[in-house]
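Good morning C.,

I know you're traveling, so I'll keep this short. The sequence:
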Amino acid sequence: MMCFLKKVHLILKPPPFVSLSSKSLTGFLLKELTKVYILMKNTNTTLVTQRKPSDQKWYLIDAEGKTLGRLAVKIANILRGKNKPTYTAHCDTGDYVVVINAEKIKVTGQKESDKTYATYSGYQSGLHVRTLHELRQKRSELILEHAVRGMMPKNNLARHMLKKLRICVGSNHPYAAQSPIAMEN
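The tokens, ready to paste straight into the viewer:
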């Protein structure tokens, strides 16, 4: 971009034989601005695709026996649209993801007893700390949701993208009408 600006600056510099009368200067500037427009018109541009609701697909992922972090990365990439050639960082180009068997996801090492999830109600002594084992018994879908949320950007667009994540406990899901595409791995 800097090279282009330097070229434009050199083009607009009047040659020494041009007098500085108002008519000749106006004509000179008009010709040079036309040249600048032609230069700008011929530069390479990046095409940004417009998002259409018909472009969104639904994916079905079975979480049984999958490692938490590795699965969360795949889900986050699909939600952001990074698996598509039309990925644009400032646009929502992602797809819907339905995850089944969220309670059967596995973790490595001693994370089952050591990993903690903290929530705070905002009141005094309102801090609730639960281990992964306790959270798996009460609300196992929050484990995967928390992992995916941590891998998304921290902005309004990410909060909008996370609404397209549907996590179901068990192998049944109410999204059969959308005919989701089953994903392996």
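Safe travels,
E.
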